[in-house]
Amino acid sequence: MNVTYIHHSCFLTETASCYYLFDYFQGTLPALDPDKPIAVLSSHKHRDHYQAAVFSLLKEMGMRSIFAVLSRDISPKTVPEEIPCLRVSPCKSYELPQGQTLTTFRSTDLGVAFLIQDGQERIYHAGDLNDWVWEGEPDADNRQMTQRYRQQITLLAQQLHGRPLTAAFVVLDPRQEKDYDRGLLYFLEHISGNCVYPMHYWEKPEIIDQFLREHPQYQSRIMLTETKHS
Description:
The protein is α/β, with parallel strands linked by helices. The protein has helices at residues 53-60, 139-160, 182-190, 206-214, and strands at 2-7, 10-14, 19-22, 38-42, 66-71, 85-88, 93-95, 101-106, 112-118, 121-125, 167-171, 196-199.
C-alpha cells in the first residue's frame, strides 16, 4: 500500500483495488491512474476537512471513477449528481463498491472516524476523533471527553480483533499545549500497527519531533510527514 501526505488531515492511500482520499480541503495531489477508482472520504463538514471543489479537481485530473463517502453532517447537494455518494453515520458498517468494508466510529467533535478493510489492508483515519482535553476547561468536561475518546478506541480495538492496522492517521494537535499527546499516546498504547501518521498539527510539524523526544519508545511506529527529520 502507498501513502501520500497531502496537507493537514488529508492523506491519499493506494491499495491494489482503489485510491482513498481522506479529508481533502487543499493541497496538491500526485499523478493518479485515471482508470483506478478513487473514494473521497470526508469525516465531517469543518472547512479544514472538506471542500466540495475536490470533485472538480479529480475530474480535471481525468479520474473516471469517483465515489464519495461523506459524514451525514455534509450536505449531499455539494456532490455532483453524477458521482455516487454514500452518506454515513457513526458506529455503522457499510460495503463499498469494490467490496471493501467500511466501519465508522463516533467523533468526539463532529462526524465520524473511518476504518476500511480492503483485502489484507486495514486503514484507519481519525477525522476529529481525539481526546480533546483543554487547559482551563472544567475538570468534569475533560474527564467526560477522555471517557468518550477511550470508548471509541476500545470499539476500534474490538473491531480489529488484535490484527494490526496497515496505516493509521491520528490527531496530534499542538493547540492542546501540555495535553497535545493524550490522544495519540492512548492510541499507540491500545492499537497495534507500525505505520501511524500524526496529522492535524496546523503546519507545526515540529510537534511530531517533540512527541518522539518525549516518547522515544514509539520512534519505530511513527511515520514522519514533513518534520525536519523526514
